[in-house]
Design a protein that fits this description.
By secondary structure, the chain is an all-alpha fold. The protein is built from five helices and no strands. The chain is 83% helix and 0% strand.
Length: 146
Amino acid sequence: MTRSHKVALFLALAIVGGVGIGLSTFFAVGHLHDGAPGMVRIVAGTLIVTFAMGWAVYFATRAHFAQDEFNREREIAASYWGGWLGIAASAPVFFFVAAGGLGHAAAPQILFTAGYLLPTICAAIGAVGARLWLRQRDGQVIKAGR
């Protein structure tokens, strides 16, 4: 198995496994049960999500260290700059919601969940965008040097 295949396999395991395990909390605390969740279901859901995050971090770390040093450094720079740009891009949305832009149109649970997910998703999108841009830029530099 080549290095790029290992990286792709570890990333697929991190993303698919982490999301799959995380979504399994719906069976523990989700809408499949009637009424408010009890303490046992809340603790079970918390443990499942903790395991999902551990799974994702383990395989993402394996993917990171399976790369060569140049790609690792490029990934670190892309995560830093792209992540911060993504979080900065989500700031106007937070201001809009905080200023009452949605009014009573959305349930408080949806706004609470969006408060957790929006910066994470925006940071991930920014990091992926920066990584793709750095890859494309470095590809042009390599071609120009030949």
